[in-house]
Structures are given as structure tokens and as C-alpha cells.
TrEMBL record:
Main subcellular localisation: membrane
Chain segments annotated as transmembrane: 141-162, 197-218, 230-250
Topology versus the membrane: Multi-pass membrane protein
Name used for this protein in its record: ABC transporter permease
Subcellular location(s) of the protein: Cell membrane
InterPro entries the record matches: ABC-4_Integral_Memb_Prot, ABC3_permease_C
Keywords: Cell membrane, Membrane, Transmembrane, Transmembrane helix
Occurrences of domain ABC3 transporter permease C-terminal (ranges): 148-246
Length: 264
């Protein structure tokens, strides 16, 4: 289906697959030391050098925890099939029509039209539907996250700015004293800039540390279920926040400086 070269297995050979990051790491480490695999007392040789990191079917989540591909002869002692998967590739000419058929299968199952088949679960998913659901879910989460983040960011920045501007009025006498002992306007401006910068930088540094740790934990959690890389989205979001934060910082600095300069 993917146009890759077919793999032929001998009776004593197997392939192993997984989309679980922890499982992939452990299995690849084991394969470096030994490619032998014991199943029910019989030794098999793993044909692949690295675990195949792919799903067995078109699905929203990376749900292939661990799969062993083995000769059919191994299954002769088993009469029960827990579940089966059928992957289909259809022509692009009838793409939308075939997508509609897959949706119809899901709808019919949910409506109870397949009860006579005695099937506990059946799902039919097209690549386009999976992509659409994944994109929609990711967009919603990002929108809510960015919206809430901006609300809290603007609130906290407004508090910081107001506090600094209020302090500017209270500090007039101190800046007058600095001017009397010989400090020029450039030195006073530098002092105001450093004071405002430190006041804004400390919360930002703390927030960045929390964000890096939080994003790492969330990424590890998401990768258990699906192969979505949130690094790029997180970077863009961080850049937006930094630009807004820098704008508030600069506005506060200019306001603070104007208050001081107009009173000394």
C-alpha cells in the first residue's frame, strides 16, 4: 500500500512493530545486543534491525503498542481471532465517493444495522477523515490554549505595568537626588531601563522554565497516543507571547521615563 519493498519471512523469523516511544527505545536497545526472540519456548530471529515505527491501520491515535508479525503456522493452535484489520487503497478519481462510503459504514454500525453480524465493534476510517479530525482537534486545543494564555499574560502584564508606573510617581524624589549629585539624563534613563527590565524579566524567566518543563511532560504524554510534534506550535506561541510581553515592557519603560523626566 505504501509502495515499499515486500518482506518475506522464514518460519523462524519475525518482525516487530510499535508506535510507543518507550517501547521503541527499549526494543531497539535489545536488538543491538541480540536479535533472538523467545515465543512460547521457541526461538525466533528478528529480521528488522530496528523496530518498525508505524500503525497497522489508518487511525487517529498511535495505538500500536507492540506487534509481532509471525508466520501463519504459529496461529494453527489458535481458533479465535480477536480482531482483524483491512487496509484499502482506492483511486483518487473516486476519492470523495469512497470517503462517503466509509462514513456510511460507521453510521450504519452506530445505527445498529449490523447487529445480525454479531460484531462487538467495527470502524471504517479514511485518511482524509483522520487528517481532518486530527487537524480540527489540534486547532481547537491550540486556540483555547493561546486564548487563555493571552488573557492571563495581558492581565499579569497590566498589573506589572501599573505597579511600575505607580512606583515612578513615588520615586521622583530619589531621581531628583540622583540629579543633584551629578547624574545626567542618560544615566537616569539607563537606571530606569534596568529597573524595568529586571522587574519584567524575572517573571518571564520563571514562566519560560515552567513552560519548557510543562511542554516536555505534555509532549511525552501526547506521544503515547499520537505522533503529533507540538514543538513548532509551541515555538510560534512562545514568540507571540514574547513579542506582546516585550511591547508591554517597552511601553512601561517609556511611560516610567516620561513621568520621571517631566518631574525632575
Amino acid at each position: 500500500l505504501k509502495g515499499k519493498k515486500e518482506i518475506n519471512l522464514n518460519k523462524d523469523e519475525i518482525l516487530i512493530m510499535s508506535t510507543n516511544n518507550n517501547m521503541v527505545k527499549q526494543a531497539n536497545e535489545k536488538l543491538k545486543n541480540s536479535k533472538k526472540f523467545n515465543i512460547k519456548g521457541k526461538e525466533y530471529l528478528v529480521k528488522n534491525n530496528k523496530i518498525i515505527d508505524e500503525n497497522l491501520a489508518t487511525y487517529l491515535l498511535a495505538d500500536n503498542v507492540f506487534t509481532v508479525i509471525i508466520s501463519d503456522e504459529f496461529l494453527y493452535d489458535y481458533n479465535k481471532i480477536v480482531y482483524s484489520i483491512l487496509n484499502v487503497m482506492y483511486s483518487d478519481k473516486n476519492r470523495e465517493e469512497n470517503n462517503k462510503k466509509y462514513r456510511e459504514i460507521n453510521k450504519n454500525y452506530l445505527d445498529g444495522k449490523y447487529k445480525s453480524l454479531n460484531i462487538s465493534y467495527m470502524g471504517a476510517f479514511s485518511k482524509d477523515d483522520i487528517y481532518s479530525h486530527s487537524k480540527g482537534g489540534t486547532t481547537t486545543v491550540l486556540f483555547v490554549g493561546i486564548y487563555l494564555g493571552l488573557v492571563f499574560l495581558i492581565t499579569s502584564m497590566a498589573v506589572l505595568a501599573l505597579q511600575q508606573l505607580s512606583e515612578a510617581s513615588d520615586s521622583i524624589e530619589r531621581y531628583k537626588a540622583l540629579k543633584r549629585i551629578g547624574a545626567n539624563s542618560k544615566m537616569i534613563d539607563k537606571t530606569i531601563f534596568l529597573q524595568t527590565f529586571i522587574y519584567f524579566a524575572i517573571p518571564m524567566i520563571l514562566a519560560l522554565i515552567h513552560s519548557v518543563i510543562g511542554i516536555k511532560v505534555i509532549s511525552d504524554y501526547i506521544e503515547v497516543f499520537t505522533k503529533i510534534d507540538i514543538s513548532f506550535s509551541a515555538l510560534i506561541t512562545a514568540l507571540i507571547f514574547i513579542v506582546v510581553y516585550a511591547g508591554y515592557f517597552y511601553t512601561t519603560y517609556i511611560g516610567y521615563k516620561n513621568i520621571v523626566e517631566s518631574n525632575i
